[in-house]
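Need tokens for this chain, all 436 residues.
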Amino acid sequence: MPLPEMPAPADEAIGKRLRRLRLARGLSQREMAEPGITFPYISRIEAGTRNPSVKALRQLARRLGVSAAYLESGVDVEPHEEREMRIAEAELRLRLGEGADEALASFEQLLAEARTTGDRAIETRARAGIGMAALQRGDHGGAIAALEEPIRAGALSPLTDGELYAVLARAYTSAGRKHDAIELLEQAVLAAEEAGDLIIYLRFASFLSYALSDAGEIDRAREAVEEAVERGRAVDDPYMRVRLYWSQARLAATAGASRQALRALRQAIVLLELTEDTRQLGRAHLLAAEILNVDGRHEQAAPHLVQAERLLAATPEAEDRYWLKVEQARQAAAAGEPDHALTLAAEALELIGDTDPAERGSAFAIIAAAHAARGDTTAALQSYAQAVPLLEQAHSWPEAVQTRKAWARQLEAAGRATEAAEVLEQAAEASLRARR
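Here are the structure tokens for all 436 residues:
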């Protein structure tokens, strides 16, 4: 527990305060030193030639028995206020993708403290931070474990904690729990309708359309999008319009209507270019590249892929990183670079793990095409057999149809005509599903 301190002199610099407190405790600079904080480093802080890092500030404060806030500013704060500052700092680090592991450690420490002190507000935010950190690492199970409890307990509301509902829905979908995602988002839509909050309603209606589309419930997804678009006419909010265009693009892409999807995406990109949201702009370019690549228009996809890579260079989100690698692998395969395509697709699979069947299916389809280009028929057929069930599980019908056709061609080249005919027949059935 930090020791109480008298208010510091108004003009006391942090170095002088550190020296005063150290001497008051009868400690030398060497005795203050610990791993990561050498006594020369402490000497430079006291001399005023070096400012301590946030981590060093906390370690030194703990060693001196004061709060980090007091050591930094000379003004002590209540324990709750200090936790508020620490959690805000961890949230900022996580958002910026800087020191994610350290941010996670802070959230876990704050969660333990909040449970001990009964600080429900900090406990909720700490759980949210742990969930966000888990999602960034691609640990969907960890995100669910952190967020499910406070949402089910009613500690979080879609009206005030909408981002956390969206994160949990994404984690459910990526973990294969698509109907849990739909149920959660339906609750959020209903809460927004009951509260009469049109902006929150439109946001969650868009998310609900994604979840329904991912689950293959295309008619319900279309209804959700059409109703959201109709209600959204009264809203002059560029971000909300981006969400609606994105919903339309995803739905059209799932149904194989690539031109309609690209038309909606172009409108989203125009609006995003007026904002500073580089991540969403990068993802819009990446979705455009995916649609064009799957459609066989690789040359048109290339500029979008370049833009996506530039805009997503610093993204901490695992799903953005593996999505980018999958599309880069697809582009490399189309450019006649099978070895490079294999490397990129393998890196993507490592990042994806056991989640996201759509992207895993795409990666295996690319690996199959690369093996076929290298003349390794056995490896190609094995990869096609892995790709197709994943793509159909994810309701990625247009890509599933193309992959089945490529698989059939490979079977024919291997002299297995009967199997090729069966695969082509199944491709026709998948094509019919896509049209429906």
